[in-house]
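Below is a typical protein record.
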Amino acid sequence: MPKSSRSLRLKDGSSLTMNRHGAVCVGGVGKFSVRRSCQSVAFTLVELLVSISIIGVLIALLLPAVQSVRGAARRVQCQNNLKQIGLAFQNYQSAFRSLPYGAKGGLGTSWTTDLLPFLELNQIYLDIPQGELGYGSDFTLQPQGVAFRRAARTLISAYRCPSEASPSFRAQPTEVIGARAINSYLGNAGNNIERDGYTLNIVTPAGTFFEQGMDDSNGVLRIVNLDPRRDGDEKPLPIKFHGISDGLSHTLLVAESLSLAEPRCELCDHHSLYHPQFDRSRGSDFSEVLMSTHFKFNPEKAPDRELEMTGMSFHHGGLHVLFCDGSVHFFANEIDDQIRLAVGSRDGGEEVNSKVFTE
C-alpha cells in the first residue's frame, strides 16, 4: 500500500482506506465481497460555489440586523448623553436657583460651559476665562485668548451624539479658530424665534420691521449681553424653574441637531465651549448652541437659516429631546405642529398630552 494511503482493519475483516486523493475505500474478504468501492470526501467545484452562495445569503440576511443593533446602541448612548445633561441642569438649578443663560454675548460662552462643573469636568471649566476681556483666535498670544482657543478645541463626549456623521472637529474657511469641537445638542430658546440674534424692531417710513430674537423670547434659555464695556444695556435675568408655568414635564429644554456635515445645511455650525461670534461686541449667531421650535423638526428641505435653528438628527424616524424635569423622549418626524410649538414655550398655557411622547 502506498505510504500516502492510510488503512484501518475492521472486526468483520473488511478494511477502510483513505487514499492520497482524499477518497474513502471499503474492501471485503472471506465471505464478504472483495469488490472495492471508493467515495471521495473532497468538495466539487459546484458544491463549493453552492456553499459560498449560501454563506453570502446568510451574511446579507444578518447585516440589517447587525446595523439595527448598532443603531439601537447609538440611540441608547444619545439618550444617556441627554440624561447626563438633564441631571447637570437640575444640579445647576439647585446651586444657583435658576437655569444658566443660553448664551453670553460679549463673553463668548454659553450653557455648555456653565454645566461643566456639574458634568464632573470642573478642571476644564476653571481653564476657561469667566468675565474677562479677551478674544480667542488662531493667532492670539494673549493668555485669555489662548485659553479660549483651547476651550474651542475641547471635545466634550456628553455633547456629542454617536450617530453624528460629521467629524468631531471641524473648521470653516471663515472661522477664526480652526478645528473647533462639534456640539450635537441645542438649548430651547422658544417657539416664537425667527432669528438667531437679538430682536429687531425697526420703524421706517414704509412701516415697522420686526423679527423675534433670542433675548426676550418665550423659551427657557435666553441670551444676554454681558460685555463689561456695555454695562448700560438691559440684562434680563435667567429663567427659574418656578417661572416655567406650563410645567417642567411639558417644556422642552434641549434637543438634538446636526452640524455642517449635513448636506442639507451649509450654516449648521453647532460648536461647543467657546464661540468667537458671541464674543464680538454684544454677540451674534447664537444658534451655535440654541434652537427654536418655531420651525419643523427634521425637515427634508428648508432654508439654511431655519435648519440651523431647528431640531434634527441622524436617528431613523425622529430625534431625542430633553424636558425640564430631566426626562428624555423621542419625537417622531411627524409630530403634530401644535405639540412642537407648545413644548417650546414656558408659559403659553398650552395643554400637552404627554402620551404622544415616546420614551
